[in-house]
Amino acid sequence: MAKKEPKTINEFLIIEPIIGYREWMYSHDKDHQLKLVGTGSGNNCFWEPGINIAKCLYKCKKAPNFKCSCGFYALKYKVDLFKELFLPSPTQFYASAGYSVGYNNDDYSIYGEVELTGKVIEHRDGYRAEKAEIKKLIYIDMDKIKLEFLTKYYKVPIVYYKDYFEMVFKK
Ligand SMILES: [Zn+2]
After folding, report:
1. Cα of 6 to ligand 1 centre, how many Å?
2. Higher confidence at residue 26 or residue 1?
3. What digits encode the pLDDT tens for the residues 57-67?
4. Is residue 24 within 8 Å of residue 109, measured between CB atoms?
5. Fewer CB within 10 Å of terminal CB in the chain, N or C?
6. How far apart are CA 81 and CA 111, in angstroms?
7. Going by DSSP bridges, is the β-strand pair 51-53/8-28 parallel, antiparallel, or unpaired?
8. Coil vs helix vs strand at 121
C-alpha cells in the first residue's frame, strides 16, 4: 500500500478501536475459499473474518515493531482511500511464496474499513497495527459470484464504491 516507508511518528496501545482504510487483493486459498490478501511487506497474508493478528515476515517476535515495517497497514483518512480508488497505477504488492496471487492489476483490488486494536504505530498518513478486523468492504469491479462468496465468508457489508462515496459525502 505505502510506496515508501513512512516516517514513524507515534506508538500507542489502543483499547478503543480506531478505524482505518485499506486495500487488499483477493485470491483463493488452498481450500479454494476466496479470501482477501494483504498487500505490502508488513501484512502479506490471507485475512480471516473477525480479528486478525499481524505476524512479522522478518524477525520481530511481535508485530508491529517500531524499527520494522511489520503490522497491518491502514490509511488514516478517507480522502486518501478515495485517492487510492482512483489511482491509475497498478496496485503495488509483494507476492510471497504460498499465495496464488500473481496480478498487479486494480481489477483484483478491493478496499475497505478496518478496526485497529492492540499495539498501533502511527505514521503521518496511516497506521501499522497488531490487530485488525474488517468492518466494511468497498468494490469497484467484481463479478457477482465473487461478491457473494466474500459476503458469506466475512459477514460484513460490501458496498459499491460510488454508493460508498455518496454515503460518506451525505454525512
Ligand atoms: Zn517486524
Report:
1. 15
2. 26
3. 888 999 999 88
4. yes
5. C
6. 8
7. unpaired
8. strand
Amino acid code (one letter) for 135: K
Backbone angles phi, psi at 2, to 5 degrees: -75, 130
pLDDT score of 95: 35
Q: Give the distance (Å) from ligand 1 centre to CA of residue 69.
A: 6
60: CA distance to ligand 1 center in Å? 4
Q: How far is the CA of 112 from the centre of ligand 1 (A)?
A: 24
Report CA(129)–ligand 1 centroid distance (Å).
Answer: 11
Q: Distance from the CA of 147 to the center of ligand 1, in angstroms?
A: 33
The owner of cell 460510488 is: 162
DSSP per residue over 1-36, as a string?
--SSPPPEEEEEEEEEEEEEEEEEEEEE-TT--EEE
Q: What is the DSSP letter of 167?
A: H
Q: In the chain, where do the E strands start and end? A: 8-28, 34-38, 51-53, 72-75, 109-123, 126-139, 158-160
**Ligand 1 center to 127 CA (angstroms):** 14
pTM of the model: 0.79
